[in-house]
Amino acid sequence: MKKNKISKYMAVALLTGAPLLWSACTDTWDSHYDVNNGGMADQPSLLQNIQKDPDLANFARVIKEIGAEDLLNSPQQLTIWAPVGLTSDQADSIIAVYKKDVEEGLKQEDNKAITQFLQNHISLYTQSLSSLTNDTIKMLNKKYMWMKGVNSTTGTLSAISGADENKIVDVVLCNNGLLYKTENKQNFFPNVREYVDQSKKVLDSLSNFIKFFDEYELDEKASVAGGIVDGKTVYLDSVTTLTNDILSHYGFIQREDSVYTMIAPTNKVWEDLYKKYSTYYNYNPNVNKYDSLADANVKRRIIEGRFFNTSRDWRYNRDYVMGNKDSICNTMYVERQKHNPRQNVYYDPENTIFAGLKKIECSNGFIYVDDKGTISSESTFFGRKDVEAYYASYYEIPRNSSNEETMNVSTRIYQAPYRYTTDENGDVKVDEWKEYQYVQVTPKTGKDVNLEYTLPNVLSGCYYNIYVVTVPNVNNNLPCWFRVSNRIMKADGKFPTSETYYNNPHPITADTEGVDNVNVILKQSNNNRCYVASATKVDTILIQKAVQFPYSSVGLEEGTVKLKFLHFGPSSSADKIYTRTLSLNEIILVPFETEKEAEEAADDLDAFNDDLLEANRKK
Prior knowledge:
Helix content: 10-25%
Strand content: 25-35%
CATH topology of the largest domain: Jelly Rolls
Number of domains: 3
Distance between the termini: 45 Å
Radius of gyration: 33 Å
């Protein structure tokens, strides 16, 4: 028989925001269970009662084999729900799990035989039962159970998710607590992490990757220090806790006091994505442990974007959980994302990323088993990357033979209309201004601008469209023409000494719109390499389309791609026509899976930016 369901999230709220409901007992019960009143003090212990009860022989055998006898014989007041229906085979299986986890180095407190069986049947303090009992009980493994009474000796116990009810058939008073006898063992209700780990042949790849980061760390506050030897603290009693670095970055799906939703990739999806993403993380063989670095980054990209914190009090998803918003954010989402507000955000998830996936309820949230590859790379790591040109860590100022910098480089702010409306008379009203931070480069001597950037965290194997955002020169209001070259790391791990120039995908001609004094450009040698920064507006210029890089630089201190901006200044007769000052706001890298996609999108940056503005408005 199924019990009436109650939201476990409401139960948690009641437990954390109000007095413990189960502690409200009648005077009769207080007297009955008063250990100082002779009610329980003269009774055998929990362990003794279990050991002498033939109905609990298999339960007693498990307790002995997993080393829990001292706990049940201690003065600590406990309540135990002991299954009379525990079979010999079930007991053998639990003991086998215990021994296996010991062999694998798990601590007692993390051994699954203890956390998923023993602690799933024990609660702190005496949990009384009556015809009025209808309460949640927190077990030693931090799971919440629902106990409902029929009278003082019978009732039911069940996971508050709506699992099958386990009948309580009798109660035994003990000097250190209460012993309830139940028809069956209490089914373990896994949290998100536990469900992943127990889903053999389905989620093994995900589980193994997460387990790799399990590590025991010393809890200094809980440990007992014994002195200092050779400058290090020695502990008489050291307490360690199991931590996981990867989950600390993406989501604490192992915690019972959190509420998470996870889209878990099946082994087949994991295999497909691993093969696909591996092309993006091809490292130069001269990089230390390049193969391990590639493997780790590929696997992290597979799980990225699949964790959702859906606690009611979590600021980004509160409205979604309450039914007031049609989008959900993963745990990688950063509020007010500057360049791509759609990254890590999913609209209408029930009909998109969750659609058609098997949904499993867990003790701390939900799992969707992903057999479709529902999380796209474009929504996580494979998105537009903006390299702020004014960050000094990205560029290198050239020096002369005397080791003196040859460029004047300064950072400034430019304000320009960002959103505006035009009335019926054609008059423009600015609705919003935007500040553009930019780097201004002017040669100290001579007329040549020269500034080289190292592009961070580039991917290999994909096709990049490269843009640069330029800012008008407010000093003289003149346009600036420039060229762009690259140096790409070679197989030996070194950069070529000479650069390769990019040709403008849209070479400047006499008919090029918006370029004044075109003849000055056309008279230059190799004028097909020239780009012109506007004198009147913030401008986005396509530098090159469908560019591939052989080596990834994700996670490396040193980059694999260098981009140089050069300006062979105009002759003195043209000084009043073009400026010698170059002003750069950012370099934009937009990746695509195929060359065709990159080429088709190269000339449609306006549509790309409009799409981002629309996404901002939806937020």
